[in-house]
Design a protein that fits this description.
The protein contains 6 helices and 3 strands; from the N terminus they run H-H-H-E-H-E-H-E-H. It has helices at residues 26-37, 44-58, 60-69, 81-89, 110-116, 130-136; strands at 73-79, 94-104, 117-127. It has a 3-stranded parallel sheet with strand order 1-2-3, with helices on one face. The protein is elongated and about 60 Å long. This is CopG family transcriptional regulator.
Length: 141
């Protein structure tokens, strides 16, 4: 069965970002600060985002080939309670594979998630209630 997708009103915004933490040596950090002071970038984050986007653009073909080969959903995939209830009613189970953001609605119970989701592979961010994440822990790779 194809993975159901809920209506746009109940989906998380695709433009939301995830916070990451990186450690840099003082020389690298100093060089970043110098480029910011010289006006090349508005702040440290601007330089780091630009550098990451440049690297992703450099490897875009490899990413696309891997997404196709691994049958990943690229972008945002949201599962509502209604979606998972329909999967259960059809006596189906889901294999969630996403490059981007996968989310499960806050009103999905751990029991419903366990009954309908075989595995979760997310390269990016996975949003679900703490209870659902705990219930699916052995199925999240």
């Amino acid at each position: 069965m194809e993975n159901p997708v809920a209506n746009a009103a109940s989906r998380p915004k695709g433009g939301e970002s995830e916070k990451i933490t990186i450690n840099l040596g003082p020389v690298d950090l100093g060089q970043i600060d110098l480029l910011v002071q010289e006006g090349f970038y508005s702040n440290r984050t601007d330089l780091i985002r630009t550098a990451i986007r440049n690297q992703l653009a450099l490897h875009a073909q490899v990413v696309q080939e891997t997404v196709s080969r691994r049958a990943l959903v690229l972008g945002l995939q949201h599962f509502s309670r209604e979606d998972l209830e329909a999967v259960r009613a059809a006596n189906q189970r889901l294999t969630i594979q996403v490059l981007g953001l996968a989310s499960i609605a806050a009103d999905v119970t751990p029991e419903l998630a366990l009954a309908t989701i075989d595995s979760v592979v997310v390269l990016g961010a996975f949003h679900a209630s703490a209870a659902v994440k705990t219930a699916l822990a052995s199925r999240i790779r």
